[in-house]
Amino acid sequence: MHGMKRFKKIDHVGIAVPRLAEAIPLYEALLGALCEHVEEVADQKVRTAFFSVGESHFELLEPTADDSPIAQFLAKGRRGIHHLCVEVDDLDAVLAEYRAKGVRLIDEQPRVGAHGKRIAFVHPAGTGGLLLELSETPKDH
User: Fold this and answer.
1) Other C-beta atoms within 10 Å of 70: how many?
2) In the CATH scheme, what is the code of domain 7-136?
């Protein structure tokens, strides 16, 4: 997988927080970056707040239900970085390659995430412990 040209850039880092109302002002004060966009992604049972710092981006993730992946992450006493998102040119091709190599996937097929992007998660067991999100911007964006 070394040198694959399908990987364009690190899109963002996802950070799990119990409450956006408390976390947004904290991150704005710490980084001097304003929250650019808040969005609920019902399918993932999460509300997200997006920030830019220079050319980099991060999102704060707040659970909207007790059974959401973020709620489960926080319930284990974890805080902070939840996942790394990498933008790819062709999500279907990357997923097919990972399946062929036996990489464990959370999402066998892409789904719609924040900003209308096509996304899929790779299980931490397939990455050495990191929850990896793959993201593809739809061609019409």
Assistant:
1) 26
2) 3.10.180.10
